[in-house]
Amino acid sequence: MKLKRYLPIIFIAVLLASCQSTKNKTVPVVGFVDAFEDATIAQARTGFTDALNKKGFSEEKKTVQIEYRNAQGNIPTLTQIVNYFVSENVDLLATCTTLSTITAVQNTKTIPIFEIVSPTPERMKVVGADGKSPANLFGVMEDLQYIDTSFSIIPKLLKPKGAKLVIGMIYNQVEPQSADAMERIKGLADKLNITLVALPLNSSADAQLVTQSLLGKNIDAFFANPDNTVFASFETILKNCNQANVPIFTSEAGLVQRGAVAAFGADIYQWGYQAGEQAAQYLKTHKTNGLKPEMVKIRKRVYNAAVAKKYNITIPSNFEAVK
User: Fold this and answer.
1) Distance (Å, rounded) from C-alpha 217 to C-alpha 270?
2) Residue 41 contacts residue 97 (beta carbons within 8 Å)
């Protein structure tokens, strides 16, 4: 009878102990935030965790706990995820793609943020009035200089059907790097004697309609620029372009494996790996001395052999075939 009296107390004690064990205070906790689901972007997470493993932070060996959340393209959900990790006081945040990084910067000034697949602080418009980046922002970023090379590949590989090549692209007006890339490409198109046709796409749900509208303007090629909505909608874009016999070129190496002809761009896996090396350094010391946002180091010229053959495009020898 006495035991029954204490059962509720015992149950609560066990429950509290269980809750405490899930936080595992002896093991560092990483909050990994993905803005949306995408096969190419997912390579960044793999690279990040591989770098941690190599540096001795392994979930399998219980030397780190990685809490993963994906907002599935929903902004309110993204904010909730970041706020949850902040309330849990994780050791660091790994933020994959621009919106994740911006949301994290807006919601914590103390937890170190390691950005992945994100642009410079200036392009994200997160610099302070003093012109400095957030003091807790680290990881690996990209500027738009490589876009020049990426876009300039197209006229070298395609022979214009008429006096000018007509190239189409889609951009999300609310994504800083996408809008900036579009403006940069406009100027570049003029220099290369290319007619650029650009249409806004604010949601992947509209990808079919917008892509078909773009293809109706007799474009010679489609350029997939650094845009998260384009990433998320790529299979829809690809299907429509294939039906219209329009090749896709891109600034993102990961999209070549998914059906684009060729690219000069960052290796997404290596981007995540590079950020993971920084994160591991912080987890070892819990100090940010010597850490700062750095430019992505590995870019590749890659091509899809099957797609190049389909469109009868000869690829230069300095391009690497994707597997």
Assistant:
1) 37
2) yes
pLDDT per position as a tens digit, 79-123:
999 999 999 999 999 999 999 999 999 999 999 999 999 999 998
93: left (phi over 0), alpha (psi -120 to 50) or beta: beta
Let me know if 46 is exposed, middle or buried by CB neighbors in 10 A (0-12, 13-18, 19+): middle
Q: What is the pLDDT of residues 218-264, one digit of tens each?
A: 999 999 988 888 888 999 999 999 999 999 999 888 899 999 999 99
Residue with tokens 């909050």: 31
Transcribe 205-243 into DSSP letters: GGHHHHHHHHHTT--SEEEE-S-HHHHHTHHHHHHHHHH
Position 97, amino acid = T
Which domains does the chain carry?
A: 22-142+268-299 (3.40.50.2300), 145-265+301-321 (3.40.50.2300)
- Rounded Cα distance, 181 and 169, in Å: 11
Whether residue 165 is predicted with pLDDT greater than 60 in this model: the reply is: yes
pTM of the model: 0.81
The per-residue DSSP string of 257-299 comes to: HTT-SEEEEE-HHHHHHHHHHHHHHHHHHS--TT---EE---E
CA distances (Å), origin 245, targets 183, 204, 248, 294, 313 = 27, 22, 10, 39, 13
Please tell me the distance from the alpha carbon of residue 305 to that of residue 262, in angstroms, as a whole number: 9
Q: What is the pLDDT of residue 162?
A: 60
Kindly tell me if the per-residue pLDDT of 169 is higher than 60. Answer: yes
AA identity, residue 74: N
What is the β-pairing status of strands 221-224 and 165-171?
Answer: parallel
